[in-house]
Amino acid sequence: MTHSVNGLSVTRAGPLALLQDAGRFGVRRLGVTQGGPLDLHGWAWANHLAGNAWGTPALEVTFGGLELVAECDLVLAVAGADLSMTLDDEPLAGWQSLSVKVGQRIAFDAPVNGLRAYLAVAGGFSAEPVLGSVACVAREGLGGHDGQGHRLAKGDCLKVTPRKASTGNEAPREEQYDYCQSVDLALLPGAQIGEFSGVSLFQAFNAPWHVDDRADRMGVRLTGPRLHCRMNSMISEGIGLGAVQVPPDGQPIALLNDRQTIGGYPRLGALTPLACSRLAQCLPGQEVRLKAVSTEQALAAYRGFRAGFA
Q1: Looking at the domain that runs over 183-307, which CATH code has it been given?
Q2: Residue 182 in 3-state DSSP?
Q3: Rounded to the nearest 5°, which phi and psi values hold at 178?
Q4: Per residue in 205-240, pLDDT tens?
Q5: From residue 174, how far is each of 95, 134, 170, 178, 227 by CA, in Å?
């Protein structure tokens, strides 16, 4: 039986580094949200390059500012955003796996391309599940490295269950996204879409939107033309990942992993999981566009993505 050991100690914490597995499901009836990685694509590739199974906990690093020291020999992989990563002060390329020796220092500095990087360790990080998951949701005080929903702090030590793995694995070039580019976000039209005016619907899917600086793990506000809805009020209903609510100011809010479980604003629809992943890497001011897709298109895209990690 493999036991967990001290794997990485935190010498500099940065603004937001959280341990995330695939998410916490089956508990929304209790008012508990799902958590999990905001960028499912980057998280999945980090684990895949480290040789881990789907769902293995990995570290989500937002904005950078994190410094870790290896407490044992490890094989790790980094994917997602370029946060000026270094290994013992030497540049560290993302989207690949590598070997790290005890005492070596891994650092994430400032964003260069994207917002969130994912660090996976071969064998996975080890933490006690809460409600069936180690996904860290700070607002609810659940999960994470300590089970209390805390972000990493200086002096913390991450437990790992290390195992031998190959190094030098690299993601295909087409999977190494340039997060600085403008992007179309696939959206499934929702039940209230017919309540928006024709002009608003045209603007919603033809005008550019910009990512507002009011963004976190709960959701991202988009700024652009004001959308008008004929509904003055509605009964609150369950909120799924990617739901695009439109409050009275007419500026959409795309709800992400740490969203509330119910909401009462009308919705254009819901971004697909892969569109949510892409939005999560956008910096404030970045341009995005909404693109309506069918259920069949969305399912085909997601199944194709998951097939690569079977």
Answers
A1: 2.40.100.10
A2: coil
A3: -95, 100
A4: 999 999 999 999 999 999 999 999 999 778 999 999
A5: 11, 30, 11, 10, 35
